[in-house]
Specification:
Layout (H helix, E strand, L loop, with lengths): L25 H21 L6 E2 L3 H8 L10 H12 L3 E2 L16 H12 L11 H18 L6 E5 L2 H17 L6 E6 L4 H9 L7 E4 L9 H13 L3 E8 L11 H11 L2 E5 L13 H7 L4 E4 L12 E5 L3 H7 L1 H4 L3 H4 L24 H11 L1 H24 L3 E8 L2 E6 L11 H18 L5 E5 L2 E7 L7 H30 L4
Parallel strand pairs: 4-5, 4-6, 6-7, 7-8
Antiparallel strand pairs: 1-2, 3-9, 8-9, 10-11, 11-13, 12-13
Helix pairs in contact: 1-3, 4-14, 5-14, 6-7, 6-11, 15-17, 16-17
């Protein structure tokens, strides 16, 4: 007869692990947890007073962080303070109200807590057996996202790390559906303005570089349906096998939206898969202004959305949605890829259970959907619609100020909260700079504004020329923040122009 185990000492009941073995006392956990929350709240409360960008050189960071493997325990609360003060702030602060670089993301407090809970509860929405509650949360969040975007019933998918994996997942389904494992002569089409993740997805899917056809955009930086149709016809005539088109809903450079309606008709006519990369721009469909986009999105075969962009979630929170979710399952279901079926057989879904690891490349999956679920439940969908509208209004404000200023020139009009413009010297300058010099001036202005420390603005290229770019989607940004960055641009442009003129005069003096 096996004896009953002795009751553990009272101290051991305070933790799921033996004290000192990957465990802290409840008092220590609460103390560190309270400190962590205080650090988060202080950061959010004081963010506008900080610089939008901070960086340290590699030598400084090596001295700070390149250390021996710790063998003995440390003070968790002190370590949290160290990270919050010396390490984590080193980078772009995407939620700063005067950070206009790339596509800013803000996150929100309920979503931060969602990440904490999902990690602590080891929530895995992979197999129903492993995480039925987390799976139901993700399915609900997917349903809400579908409704927010106005997609038809029947669409489904899953949350992934971001737009790169969402594009890869959708294009894998397109490949399997249209090519049946034979990549011979396959052709995938996009614009040169498409995100680099499209090219990386093609590479990972086994396509060579010449099997991805990137077409030059039209004058509005959009994929030209007529040029695409001509290329598809020519490729078919040459015996090649076109199978999919990627339409971008919000290019990263200018926010351009490829003509989804025309592309959908073309793809339907040619039997091609249409994937809409709406990582940033699909969120426009939340608003009244973006309502016409809803019908167009619904005509795609698959869609990428990044809630960690214009739906104000922390990283990582990407999503892939598909008109026919069974096509994802055809590509990724675990039974298709089993080598040893015995180990995973107990986790197979039964009845109306759903195993989300059958729908994408990950088996072990974090509960990314909880961020969106909890923030929508906390704030309500109407708050998200207002926040998206706010970003559009800020961009319109910036365009009006740029248009009215004699030293600023709008290059691309507001689109999805993104615009581009250039600083140009005042008319009193001795001579207009050459195009190359004007390109260099934009980079000089960008560097000067960032060095000032009050705002961050970067450059991109449009039709071969360097331009300044604003992305205004932060709901904490005010019109005054827009005015500040434009004032800094003008000051920097004037200073750079004056310095250039002085150098030119100096070079013209005898003996210099």
């Amino acid at each position: 007869m096996i004896p009953e185990p002795a009751a553990p000492p009272a101290a051991a009941l305070r933790s799921p692990y033996r004290p000192g073995e990957l465990a802290l006392s409840p008092e220590e956990m609460l103390h560190a947890g309270h400190r962590a929350v205080r650090l988060v709240v202080d950061r959010l409360r004081n963010l506008a007073q900080d610089r939008p960008h901070a960086v340290a050189d590699p030598a400084t960071l090596r001295a700070l962080l390149d250390e021996s493997l710790p063998e003995e325990p440390g003070d968790l609360t002190a370590l949290l303070d160290h990270l919050a003060a010396d390490v984590l702030p080193l980078g772009i602060r995407f939620d700063h109200p005067r950070c206009f670089a790339f596509v800013p993301t803000t996150g929100n407090y309920p979503a931060f807590l969602a990440d904490l809970l999902a990690s602590a509860f080891l929530s895995v929405p992979g197999a129903w057996l492993v995480g039925s509650g987390p799976t139901r949360i993700e399915l609900t969040a997917l349903s809400w996202l579908r409704r927010l975007l106005g997609l038809p019933d029947g669409w489904g998918g899953l949350f992934v790390s971001g737009g790169s994996v969402a594009n890869l997942t959708a294009l894998a389904a397109a490949r399997d559906h249209h090519l049946a494992g034979d990549l011979t002569g396959a052709r995938l089409y996009c614009s040169t303005q498409a995100h680099p993740s499209v090219a990386r997805a093609a590479h990972l899917l086994g396509l060579t570089r010449d099997q991805l056809t990137a077409l030059p955009p039209d004058d509005t930086q959009r994929l030209d349906p007529h040029a695409l149709a001509a290329r598809v016809d020519a490729d078919r005539a040459a015996g090649l096998r076109p199978f999919a088109v990627v339409a971008t809903v919000g290019t990263t450079g200018t926010g351009a939206v490829d003509p989804l309606g025309e592309l959908a008709r073309l793809c339907h006519r040619h039997g091609l898969w249409l994937h809409a990369d709406g990582a940033h721009g699909a969120a426009l469909a939340l608003t009244d202004r973006g309502r016409p986009l809803r019908e167009a999105l619904g005509r795609a075969d698959s869609l990428t959305v990044d809630p960690h962009k214009w739906l104000f979630q922390p990283y990582e929170a990407g999503c892939v949605l598909v008109r026919d979710p069974s096509l994802l399952r055809n590509s990724f279901r675990m039974a298709r890829h089993h080598l040893d079926t015995g180990y995973l057989h107990p986790a197979e879904a039964h009845g109306d259970e759903i195993n989300l690891d059958d729908y994408g490349p990950q088996q072990s999956r974090g509960l990314r959907a909880l961020k969106l679920w909890l923030s929508l439940k906390t704030f309500g969908a109407a708050a998200f619609r207002r926040a998206v509208d706010h970003g559009l209004a800020l961009c319109d404000h910036a365009a009006a100020r740029i248009t009215d200023h004699p030293e600023l020139a709008l290059v691309t009009a507001p689109s999805l909260g993104i615009l581009t413009f250039r600083y140009r010297p005042p008319r009193g300058a001795p001579a207009p700079p050459a195009p190359e010099a004007l390109d260099g001036l934009q980079h000089t202005v960008s560097r000067a504004v960032c060095a000032d420390g009050r705002a961050m603005i970067l450059t991109t290229r449009v039709r071969g020329r360097s331009v300044l770019r604003l992305c205004t989607i932060n709901p904490a940004t005010l019109p005054a923040d827009i005015d500040t960055v434009l004032e800094l641009v003008v000051r920097a442009g004037r200073a750079a122009t004056a310095a250039g003129e002085g150098a030119a005069r100096g070079n013209g003096r005898p003996g210099t």
